[in-house]
Amino acid sequence: MGAAYLLINNNNSRTKFALADPDRLGEARAVVETASLDAALLAKITAGWEFERVALASVVPAKAAVIREFWSAHPVLEVSHRLHLGLTLDLPDPSAVGADRLANVAAVVGLGEPLPCIVVDFGTAVTCNVVSAEKAFLGGIIAPGLSAMTDYLHDRTALLPKIQIEEPREVIGKSTRTAMLSGVVYGYRGLIQELLRQVERELTGGTRHVRTVATGGYAELLAAQIPAIDAVFPDLTLDGIRIIANLNPR
Fold it and tell me: In which band, very low, low, confident or very high, does the pLDDT at 91 lie, cut at 50, 70 and 90?
């Protein structure tokens, strides 16, 4: 017997796939570079997978079209503001919000996280998304992602190298590479801490801590040294897509 869902989180850098049932994610997973996503690759990575529905959260319209075409024989549920998400959208133009952000806020509500709650997603861009105690998505913050910063330094300078992001061994770098590493990792943590401080100040007047969870590619690396982040959920976006699929049956 196959799974209920094939979940797809189609982001700018990478696309994640997972089989899932209504109550949990399955063990069958795949991650590919979004730039390489085409019909042949979809056929290869999902060969032998059995499922009833496709649930897709995409922020890359061209690749979403490839996915829709490939699974044209299956019902494809695309995450958007038009669906039942388990919370209200307190925004002037909900149609402009990315599907990944909608999945993340649906996840914290559906998983029963204490509210209010801030979701930090360390992706190609970093987003901070805020859910109120009344289960309303209030909006958030979008800033350049960690890899976007390092790529920019490399692309716009003659001598700065492209670096692999990892935990620095010291703050005072002894080489160009280690100096860059200190700048981006420690500097980025400072950026996130200040953003969270300002969000808490606006929500509560700075009088109390707001539950904060993180997800995304660099969440484990960065959140370990950011005291304001309470938990890291690597599969938060996929769980959000699963929860939205449950809320929107055929």
Answer: very high
Tokens of 60: 């890359």
Q: Which fold has domain 3-78?
A: Nucleotidyltransferase; domain 5 (3.30.420)
pLDDT digits (tens, 9 = 90+) for 19-74: 999 999 999 999 999 999 999 999 999 999 999 999 999 999 999 999 999 999 88
Active site residues: 100
Length, in residues, of the chain: 250
What pTM was estimated for this model as a whole? 0.94
Residue-wise pLDDT tens digits, 164-219: 889 999 999 999 999 989 999 999 999 999 999 999 999 999 889 999 999 998 99
| CATH for 88-146+177-240 (3.30.200.20, 3.40.190.10, 3.30.420.40, 3.60.21.10) | 3.30.420.40
Contact 229, 218 (CB under 8 A): no
Domain boundaries, the chain: 3-78, 88-146+177-240
State both tokens at 119: 């979701």
Is cis: bond before 116, omega within 30 of 0? yes
